[in-house]
Amino acid sequence: MIRKAEEKDIDKILDLLRQVARVHHKGRPDIFMDGTKYVEGELKLMLNKDLDPIFVYTNKDDLPLGYVFCNTICHKHDTVLTDIKTLYIDDLCVDIEYRGQGIGTKLYEYVKEYAKENHYYNVTLNVWELNPSAKRFYEHLGLHVLKTYMEEII
Questions:
Q1: Which pLDDT tens digit goes with each residue over 84-113?
Q2: Which residues in 54-70 are b (16+ Cβ under 10 Å) and which e?
Q3: Please, what is the average pLDDT of the chain?
Q4: What residues contact 151, with CB distance under 8 A and at least 6 apart?
Q5: Is 33 helix (H, G, I), strand (E, B) or coil?
Q6: Superfamily per CATH, domain 2-140
Q7: CA distances from 104 to 39, 41, 93, 138, 147 (A)
């Protein structure tokens, strides 16, 4: 089942956030710390944001096995960008013990349907080069490169 995240899910979400942080830290310890992207207090506030929903995929016991954090992005009256409403996937994670079972795909498809029902123009996300399996996963879902973000370490 997929539903909006609730306060009772915070401990498991924090565990999943740590799993993501470890992947990033392992791939680029020069820029990522081994911690979590958000802390409990931030998550409590985020759960009540209607335009920035957090969805969880749960098992039969209602324990989250994965999540997806979404943000609404609008560029109203921008001098360059059109006035489209984008649903940005800030983070998507499936518990390492349950990967490969289609949970990530179900979360993404749910987000896509949510975006259609709520009149978004597109769904976007970032994927780090340090995480080739995530990149392959998103490409398999039909996403394609929108822009490339480059760096030079000096």
A1: 999 999 999 999 999 999 999 999 999 999
A2: bbbbbeeeeebbbbbbb
A3: 95
A4: none
A5: coil
A6: Gcn5-related N-acetyltransferase (GNAT) (3.40.630.30)
A7: 23, 26, 7, 10, 23
